[in-house]
Amino acid sequence: MSGERIKETVKQAYGQAALRVLAGERGSCCGTGPGSGGCDPVSSNLYAAAETAVLPEGAVLASLGCGNPTALADLHEGETVLDLGSGGGIDVLLSAQRVGPTGKAYGLDMTDEMLTLAREHQRQAGAPNVEFLKGEIEHIPLPDASVDVIVSNCVINLSADKRQVLRDAFRVLKPGGRLAVSDVVVRGEVPANLRRSMELWVGCIAGALEEEEYKRLLAAAGFVSIGIEPTRIYAFEDARAVLAGTGLDAEALAREVKGRIMGAFIRARKPA
Known about the structure:
The chain is an alpha/beta fold and 272 residues long.
């Protein structure tokens, strides 16, 4: 499948998810439609109640991630943070709280509907140290060496050119800067028909990198101190729920992929 087709499918699905949130509904995991069954195993129970209590309700409803990168990124007062694929803005707003008024939190998204949603959440939250940018994560619209920390939540796997995403992330990080992202990662091989499924690509499974390949691409981009830490390994019931409604044999495929698909926290650093 072509990179442009993947990009347009992802953009359309996330735009629809934003419109659902604007209508007062909860977004479905990674843009998959209602009834897919794929949301709860991936996106449920990722944020503490104390975190979500201080955020606009819509930002919580629009959360489509697979982790909580801002809780693991060790952000500090005064730092500049960039969220790749910021969606409804939940991780940007949490980052902005952690870096404080002397810091800055950028959100980058390619979907107009999500940017509209995120800017409304910024207004509701009263977050002057936040800025949402339109653009693609393969071509970040920021200068070289301008960011202390890059976070992302279940978005890098959606790109058809992950090598370029990591190269450009490396470019915009300051020397000594950190990459701290949540993503879906695969351990070992998964069935070819699952890899070919466009619906599952949008749903964050088909495009997920294999664990060792992720490490190789990070190293090739220049990163050091690379680590991948599982945060949620999907069991058989989780895999079956993710695969339901895709037109594939969910029962048989779930048995093949159980334990091989995980939400993970990926750490890396740009040399000082």
